[in-house]
Design brief:
The complex is a heterodimer of chains A (308) and B (264). With 308 residues, chain A is mainly α. Chain A is built from 13 helices and two strands; from the N terminus they run ααααβαααααβαααα. Chain A has a two-stranded antiparallel ribbon. In chain B, the strands form two sheets. A six-stranded mixed β-sheet of chain B has the order 6-7-8-3-9-10, sandwiched between helices. In chain B, strand 4 and strand 5 form a beta hairpin. Classes of the chains: A mainly alpha (308), B alpha/beta (264). Bound molecules: adenosine-5'-triphosphate and magnesium ion.
Chain lengths: 308, 264
């Protein structure tokens, strides 16, 4: 189960990127499948050529941001529908990624990576490496929380929530969307670079279907832990990612074929999307949130009362 | 202050769906002018406001604000000078953001989003003071999601957000139409107060004759993309709802059947 925790927190960085587009910008961005591999390829090729692993990872982030910018431009300047814009970039990136790597797979087993110190100390697969992953995920989560609380971050949330209103309040919504897609894919590519270093290789197919893992983390996490505030939402996404990896690990442990994992991922997302709308579950949730609303109304009344 | 000169706008030109919405409209407003706009459905009232706001680009003519030709400026840039309240109470606010976050957007308007905290202690104090003027108790609910508010409360908030950073021009498109009479009354009062307090130049579309007559210092009637009647100052004060209805029938060359005009 340690492996599920390591991977869960590591992939949480990608899931936070998906949260930014899917939830904050209301833009289901399929670039992710391509930009994850782009991050992995850029970092891998650079490290094979002797570049410092940290610098290589930073370059991977920049490459991902470029990919996000392309999708953003296709959507805003090119007026292409969000899903299609993402698919187009994703498909194009397949070729780009092959160009970057020069072949379908780049092994990193003998290279120095950011995880080499942990590996040499024999700490991979222990609670220490889990702790490192937790810190990484929480650092990214904290940065995202901070950003979404700034003027620019609130403008981004408003753009996703009510674009018409955002524009009438002087927000350059096109620019905001491009920027959001760039940050999101920067996170995804950074995650790709780290995953390549953790698993010891970059592979052309490593990003296929990854958007589903990202969506599963966001949707499952928020279905369980809620989304009342930004801080709750991002925390829910991180935990959602861990839960998702846990489910996958359990499925593998009970002897399911790794090739079945995509089917299970998709099934998990469907369940998470449909279950909250299922009558008994809905009743239970409304009862819970009604209680919260009436609590709040009481609070307002008592505050108003004490003022009057 | 605002010069709308020979402005024309046609939707879907050269197709079967072609619709001429504005035919060479001229309207010049001085600072502090408050114009009420009436006219039947499809007369071009909303289009006129959208053309000033930059939501629709014009085909001909020019829109000049404060001496600057803004005809080609995108909507978000004009928002520095022009603000709006929509008919739909859901349209002017972001439902999944809190009251204070919505207000933070209004405060930052026209200054671009920086990396400073959106909701600070100092800003909260300003929000509370301003929200108090609405007399809806919203100053105690800064962290409530706006989606939880009623239509009237959201509309009051929209109005506050539109006037927070003093705009040069305020556009109101049937902004009380979706509200119950008492709420509509409240929003009308708040509008008059805000316009007077900030000395705003304002354009207000309404189907309510009494509102059109009692508010503002100028009145225009639109029909089929044109301004067909203008009344200023004393002339406007002397008008009655019956005058306006007669005027309508004359223009239409038929008995007035437009029921929306008879409301209120
Ligand atoms: N976005 C649009 N696309 C196509 N046609 C439009 C659009 N907006 C307005 N029109 C057309 O332009 C004309 C004027 O419409 P407008 O919305 O300005 O009328 P209005 O005076 O505001 O009417 P109402 O009282 O019903 O709100 C109408 O014929 C309408 O069909
Ligand atoms: Mg209209």
């Amino acid at each position: 189960m340690i492996i599920a925790l390591e991977l869960g927190f590591l992939f949480a960085i990608m899931a936070l990127g998906v949260y930014l587009t899917y939830r904050v910008l209301d833009f289901p961005d399929l670039t992710v499948d391509g930009s994850f591999t782009t991050g992995a390829s850029v970092a891998a090729v650079m490290m094979v050529n002797g570049v410092d692993p940290v610098l290589a990872s930073v370059c991977a982030v920049v490459a991902g941001m470029l990919a996000g910018t392309v999708t953003g431009l296709l959507h805003t300047a090119g007026r292409i529908n969000p899903l299609l814009a993402g698919i187009l970039t994703q498909i194009a990136l397949y070729s780009v990624n092959l160009r970057i790597m020069g072949r379908a797979n780049v092994p990193l087993l003998r290279e120095t990576t950011v995880f080499t110190p942990l590996r040499e100390a024999g700490l991979i697969g222990t609670w220490v490496s889990v702790g490192v992953m937790v810190l990484l995920a929480l650092a990214v989560m904290g940065l995202l929380d901070w950003f979404l609380g700034t003027d620019m971050g609130v403008a981004m949330r408003a753009t996703g929530d009510n674009e018409e209103m955002a524009r009438s309040q002087g927000i350059a919504t096109d620019r905001v969307k491009i920027f959001g897609l760039a940050i999101s894919n920067g996170l995804v590519a950074g995650c790709g670079a780290l995953v390549a270093q953790f698993t010891g290789f970059a592979d052309i197919s490593m990003g296929i279907g990854l958007i589903v893992a990202g969506l599963a983390s966001v949707i499952v996490g928020q279905a369980i832990f809620g989304s009342r505030t930004v801080a709750i939402s991002t925390f829910a996404v991180v935990l959602g990612s861990v839960i998702y990896r846990g489910v996958i690990q359990v499925a593998l442990n009970v002897g399911l074929n790794p090739n079945d994992m995509k089917l299970i991922s998709a099934g998990l997302v469907v369940v998470a999307l449909v279950l909250p709308r299922w009558e008994p579950v809905r009743k239970w949730r409304t009862a819970r949130s009604n209680r919260r609303i009436s609590d709040e109304a009481d609070l307002v009344d008592s505050v108003a009362g004490s003022v009057n | 202050m605002l010069q709308i000169t020979e402005v024309g706008k046609t939707f879907h030109p050269l197709t079967v769906n072609e619709r001429v919405a504005l035919r060479g409209v001229n309207l010049h407003l001085d600072e502090g002018d408050f114009v009420t706009i009436i006219g039947s459905n499809g007369a071009g009232k909303s289009t006129l406001l959208n053309v000033v706001a930059g939501r629709h680009m014009i085909d001909q003519g020019s829109v000049v604000i404060d001496g600057e030709d803004v005809s080609k400026q995108p909507e978000y840039k004009r928002a520095r000078n022009v603000s709006r309240v929509f008919q739909d109470p859901m349209a002017g606010t972001a439902p999944h953001l809190t009251i204070e976050e919505n207000l933070a957007i209004a405060v930052a308007r026209g200054r671009g989003g920086g990396l400073r905290r959106a909701v600070t202690h100092a800003r909260r104090e300003i929000f509370r003071t301003e929200l108090k003027t609405l007399e809806l108790g919203l100053e105690h609910r800064l962290t409530t999601l706006v989606g939880m508010l009623s239509g009237g409360q959201r509309q009051a908030l929209s109005l506050l957000m539109a006037t927070f950073v003093e705009p040069r021009i305020l556009l109101l498109d049937e902004h009380t139409a979706a509200l119950d009479p008492s709420r509509a009354e409240l929003i009308s009062r708040l509008t008059t107060e805000a316009v007077a307090r900030h000395r705003l130049t304002a354009l207000m579309v309404t189907h309510n004759m009494n509102q059109a007559l009692s508010m503002g210092n100028r009145l225009i009637m639109m029909h089929d993309g044109e301004i067909v009647l203008e009344a200023v100052g004393e002339h406007k004060k002397s008008l009655t709802a019956q005058h306006l209805l007669d005027e309508f029938s004359k223009i239409k060359g038929a008995q007035l059947t437009d029921r929306t005009l008879l409301q209120g």
